[in-house]
Structure formats: C-alpha cells, structure tokens
Design a protein that fits this description.
Length: about 280
C-alpha cells in the first residue's frame, strides 16, 4: 500500500466520521441557539480527526469495523473537542485562537463555552450508550479511565500547576512525560482500544492495539512539541525529540507484528504522523 492509497483511505475514514458527527449534532428543534451553534463550531472547525481515524483503523485491524466502531470513534472526537474548548478558557490557557479561528469562548461567550464543553461530553456518552450490550461495559471502563484524574483531567491539572511554577523552574523530563501520557497519550490509547474492542473480542489483539495507541499518542505529543517549539522541544532540543518520536513509533509498530499484513493501514498511520515534521 503506498502513500497515495493511504491519503485515499484517510479521506474515506474522515468522511464517515464527518457524516456521523453531522447527523448526530443536527439538533433540529434548537438549531440556531447559541449553545448548539457553539457545539457545531467546536466540532467542525478543521480538526484533523486523528483519534477517530485511529479508532476505525484499529477496529479494522483487530477484526471488522461496524456501527459500534463509528460510535466509539465519534465519541472520542466529541471528547477531544470538549477538552480543547475547556483548555482554551480564561481559567485554563486563555487562548483567543484555535486552528486560526476565534476560540469558542471568544466567539460565543464564556458561559456558552463552558456549557458547550459539558454538552459535548454528555453527547459523547449518549453515543457510547448505543454500543452493543456485550461491549458497552468495557468501552465505558476504558473511556472513563482515560478521562479521569489519572488521565486528561489529572494531566490538565498538572500542566496548569507547572505553568504557574514555570516562571521559576524548568520542568523535568519525568514531569513532562507524566503530563503528556495523561493529557495526550491516554486519549489515543482509548481510541485504539475502544476501536479494537468494537471490532474483535480477542484479548491479545485488543492489548496489542492498546499498546500501539499509547505509544503512538506519546509520539504524537513529541511531534506536536516540535511543530509548536514547546514542551519537549524546549527541554531537549529538536534532534533528541525527533529521535525519541522515531523510537516511540518503532515501539508502536512492533506491537502490530501479530497482525501481519492486516496492520498495513496502521503502519501508514504511524508514517503519516512522522511525516508532519518532514
Ligand atoms: C475531557 C474529561 C475531560 C477533561 C478535560 C481541558 C482538559 C480536561 C484537558 C486538556 C487536554 C488537552 C487540551 C490536550 C492537548 C492535546 C493536543 C496536543 C491537542 C491537539 O490535537 P490535534 O492536533 O487537534 O489532533 P486537531 O486540531 O487536529 O483536532
């Protein structure tokens, strides 16, 4: 499979995700209310959809993609969108722009942004509640772990504490790793594991894809830091961070060995992430 094919695959997966999200966020009766507009603005403003694509590819590699895979993929993207809306708030990063556009609180006001984030999280769980009875429990368990104090919420708090202290001290690699594992890698890990659970019931396959997601998620953060000249980039310098990202991607790819050629799409996904810095 070559790069052109992968672009095609990527586009196809993205279309499925856009279509499901659009249908799901078409709240007919209240279409023009500021809250609904804010929710759609948050979700449809040019995100790359990396996490839901990972969920769908994981389902395909583990076994077979189905309706549940799409629910998991879209729920993860709604949660990602929620986390960005709240991350931008004045009490957090206080950002005016995201993806080149005004942040949700700047465009729709702060209270709408807070409620928009909350509503997106609730919507994500509404989608997940549609998953088949036999899988819904393990999927809920995975996503709640990823979001809790040992995941996104804990990582966000650690990050805020750090930025307050940062004027005086530089973070250690250990602290940055802990934040990145919680804030970023945990949602990638949840995406690949939930996708895998939706597509198969073989524990070994699910574990391998969970490990792939965790490593690729951390690699994504290293790469993001290089692009933004922040975090690991500032701490370790470009050369070291590129080399660490490559190592992590290598480790992630090793986890795919058990799938043989069926994992080709995920090898290309790994390559795609790395290409962002080339
Ligand atoms: C979700 C329960 C819950 C709590 C939220 C606010 C918060 C707690 C966490 C913040 C997490 C955060 C902002 C992590 C940053 C991760 C990151 C590098 C995002 C950028 O990802 P891309 O490049 O984004 O995939 P696009 O724009 O493509 O969607």
């Amino acid at each position: 499979m070559n790069k052109i094919n992968f672009k095609k695959i990527f586009r196809k997966e993205k279309e499925k995700i856009e279509c499901t999200l659009k249908n799901f966020l078409m709240l007919r009766c209240q279409r023009s209310q500021p809250l609904m507009l804010a929710m759609r603005y948050a979700v449809f403003s040019g995100g790359k959809r990396l996490r839901p694509i990972l969920a769908l590819l994981s389902a395909q590699v583990a076994g077979k993609e189905n309706k549940d895979s799409l629910y998991c993929a879209c729920a993860v993207e709604l949660i990602h969108s929620y986390s960005l809306v709240h991350d931008d708030l004045p009490a957090m990063d206080n950002d005016a722009f995201r993806r080149g556009k005004l942040t949700v609180h700047r465009k729709f006001s702060e209270h709408n942004a807070i409620l928009c984030g909350n509503a997106l999280l609730v919507k994500a769980f509404e989608l997940l509640s549609r998953v088949d009875k036999s899988k819904v429990k393990s999927i809920f368990s995975e996503i709640t772990q990823a979001l809790g104090v040992l995941g996104l919420i804990g990582g966000q708090l650690q990050d805020i504490d750090l930025s307050k202290k940062n004027l005086k001290v530089n973070p250690s690699t250990k602290t940055l790793l802990s934040i990145s594992n919680k804030k970023t890698a945990s949602l990638f890990k949840a995406a690949s594991k939930m996708g895998a659970i939706s597509g198969a019931s073989n524990k070994k396959k699910i574990k391998a894809l969970e490990e792939y997601g965790r490593n690729i998620g951390l690699a994504f953060q290293f790469i993001d830091d290089i692009l933004d000249k922040e975090g690991f980039y500032r701490l370790l310098g470009k050369e070291k961070v590129v080399s660490e990202a490559k190592n992590l991607i290598e480790v992630a790819n090793q986890k795919l060995k058990i799938f043989g050629r069926k994992a080709n799409r995920l090898y290309l996904y790994s390559e795609y992430l790395l290409e962002r810095i080339n």
